[in-house]
Amino acid sequence: MKRVKGFTLLELMVVLAILGALLGVVAPNLSFDSQKQQLQQEAQSLQHALQTQIDQAWLEGQTTLVKRNIDTVRWLRQSDKGWQEKGSAYDISDNLDSFVTTDTRQLRAAEKSLGVTEPVDLIFLSTGEYLAFRWALRNRSGEEIVIVGDGINALSLE
Predict the structure, then answer these.
(1) How many helices (H) and strands (E) does the chain have?
(2) Which string of b and e fits 97-129 if b means at least 16 CB within 10 Å?
(3) Is residue 102 part of a domain?
(4) Cα-based angle 7, 11, 13 (whole degrees, multiple of 5)
(5) Under 8 Å CB-to-CB from 83, ≥6 apart: which residues?
(6) What's in the keyword line of the UniProt record (predicted)?
């Protein structure tokens, strides 16, 4: 009897079942990692943009206001015409939610002393100081990274 080289149907089905099980375990983690990676990149990018504004306020001796809407962060500096936008705005990714928390009472008092007529989210003083804050970014999966500023030191991520 002549023997044909190759795999039996049973062997092929076992290999396909093992590959299917492995793919089922690995595939959800791949998309999860990409969402988490995008969140991490966005948090680092926003942290860098905020830290740059804090440093520039101190180096240039000018207070910077931070005003945020749903997906854009604007920087305002005082000029002869009042508070004007300075530089390009920072755009937050559409699939992320953004929440800023700080001591609202102190923030409103600072706005009043600076003559700010519209509410802002943060104020970076010309001395390099700012009110402590937490800026959370959350993706659609519910994962969250928080940018933390203690009022004096460099910003950090949690």
Answers:
(1) 2, 9
(2) ebeeebeeeebeebbeeeebeeebbbbbbeeee
(3) yes
(4) 120
(5) 65, 76, 77, 116
(6) Membrane, Transmembrane, Transmembrane helix
Q: Tell me how far apart the alpha carbons of residues 110 and 132 are, in angstroms, rounded to a whole number.
A: 13
5, two tokens:
């080289």
**pLDDT per residue as tens, the chain (158 positions):** 677 777 788 888 888 888 888 888 777 666 556 888 899 999 999 999 999 999 999 999 999 999 998 789 999 998 888 898 888 889 988 889 999 999 999 999 999 999 999 999 999 999 999 999 999 999 998 999 999 999 989 999 99
Q: What are phi and psi of 9, to 5 degrees?
A: -60, -40
In a domain, 26, yes or no: no
**Residue 4 is encoded by which pair of tokens?**
């044909």
- The number of folded domains in the chain is 1
Is the pTM of the predicted complex or chain greater than 0.85? no
- The answer to the question of residue 144 being in a domain is yes
